[in-house]
Design brief:
By secondary structure, the protein is mostly helical. The protein is built from 17 helices and two strands.
């Protein structure tokens, strides 16, 4: 038998706890410090308020993802939902646009690992740490989702311990240095919505949960619950850490390096020792996030390869030994090599365009699938499948308008490349793009 076999065959081993752990690891709770310095400056010190706005928007969108995961319990996420409701062409463009985010998210985590470890070991080049983490994550993703789920539990556990210790030290610090206005950071301020648009990056974990539908034991029940739990728990942790951090270090524009703002905050709380512990746990969290983000995007590539949108022999192949999409994982690792020479600031602005496009489309798919195609017309249906997703759509578009010019430029270029590829794939729209197969027995026909 060949070592690599085409077609589906992913193992259904994950329940609600495992899926939620996957999502929380993807979010990486300590990753609130990834954009802490930059967004604190954008919002003028109102980072918690920006997180509240982002959480509200994401909860509406998380509900929509849950409804569509229940209708289509298969790998593919927003790509699947839009393809099945708005047609193959729209589905392809949505999946392609979202791919911009997913491909670069592992890269950002590898970049962060290099930045933070280099801050502690300046004698070792940043790229050495980045490359080592990339190779290790590649190996773990090849071994499979069960091994990764166990690592996820460890990563989330360590991250939660850090957050508990951080909050305890922050409260102790505030007891001796009370803040004159502890809730000022939650009031509306300049740049809050622009900051919330950037922070949409922090919530991509709930979307990633839907990409594991074919590895969930009971996807129609487990995926929606895990999506909402991931969004709510992750968002509350983000708000808490951002709030405590702002009280301990109220100066939002005086960090030694905005990319490592967490180091300054931890040093103020517990000195050099706690700073070192923080860096260690932060790196563990970034490593776990890199592992789960790579797993998620490799399964989207696998879905697109399985249905022939991408070359099937490459992206639609699974290892017969590990039952993992080896070539898709390798492709993501290759893209992540960009982390060896790009800055964090440039990497972050490339991300959110695709995410907000995908979030907008998924909100609309709920209305199309349940109300238009399903012809549901009761008062409850109009609320659940009409009003709520439309509010989510409006809020997401609102954030979308707050993105920077650089983000729009990169996103539109990426969409243009995808459109040209679609023209070639469909021979100038004389053929339809291949449709995703929902059967676990055979790959889709071209």
């Amino acid at each position: 038998m060949s070592e690599f076999a085409p077609g589906p065959g992913l193992k259904r081993v994950l329940g609600v706890p495992g899926l939620t752990l996957f999502g929380l690891t993807y979010l990486a709770p300590v990753a609130v410090f990834t954009t802490y310095g930059a967004v604190a400056q954008v919002t003028g010190g109102h980072l918690p308020a920006a997180y509240v706005v982002a959480l509200v928007v994401m909860l509406f969108t998380a509900f929509s993802y849950g409804r569509m995961a229940k209708a289509f319990p298969t790998a593919g996420s927003a790509y699947t939902y839009t393809q099945q409701t708005f047609g193959r062409h729209v589905g392809f463009m949505t999946g392609w646009t979202l791919m911009l985010d997913y491909l670069f998210l592992p890269m950002i985590n590898f970049l962060l690992i290099g930045i933070y470890l280099n801050s502690q070991f300046p004698g070792v080049p940043q790229w050495v740490f980045t490359l080592a983490a990339l190779l290790l994550v590649f190996a773990l993703n090849i071994l499979g989702i069960t091994v990764m789920s166990r690592v996820n539990a460890l990563v989330v556990g360590v991250s939660v311990v850090l957050i508990v210790v951080f909050v305890a030290l922050a409260l102790k610090h505030l007891a001796g240095h009370p803040s004159p206005s502890p809730f000022a950071a939650f009031t509306p301020g300049t740049g809050v919505f622009a900051g919330a648009a950037i922070l949409a990056l922090s919530f991509l974990g709930f979307d990633a949960v839907s990409t594991l539908s074919e590895e969930a034991k009971d996807p129609r029940r487990a995926i929606p619950r895990a999506i909402v739990l991931t969004t709510l728990i992750g968002g509350l942790l983000f708000i808490l850490v951002a709030w405590m951090g702002g009280l301990v270090h109220p100066g939002y524009d005086d960090f030694a390096n905005p990319d490592t703002a967490g180091v300054d905050i931890m040093a103020a709380l517990g000195g050099a020792a706690f700073q070192t512990i923080f860096v260690a746990i932060y790196v563990i969290g970034a490593f776990g996030s890199a592992m789960t983000t790579q797993a998620s995007v490799s399964r989207i590539l696998y879905s697109m390869g399985r249905d022939g949108v991408l070359p099937r022999r490459v992206f639609g192949a699974l290892s017969s030994r590990f039952k993992t999409p080896v070539f898709a994982v390798a492709a993501v690792s290759a893209v992540s090599l960009v982390a060896l020479f790009i800055s964090l600031g440039n990497a972050v602005v490339m991300i959110n365009f695709g995410a907000l496009i995908a979030f907008s489309m998924v909100n609309l798919t709920v209305v199309k699938h349940y109300l238009v195609d399903g012809r549901r017309r009761s008062a409850g249906d109009l609320l659940l499948y009409g009003a709520l997703p439309l509010v989510g759509f409006g809020l997401t578009v609102w954030l979308w308008t707050s993105l920077s010019g650089v983000t729009f430029t990169v996103g539109l270029i990426w969409m243009a490349v995808g459109f040209v590829y679609l023209l070639g794939l469909t021979r100038m729209f004389t053929r339809r793009p291949p449709a995703m197969s929902f059967s676990e027995a055979e790959p889709a026909a071209a």
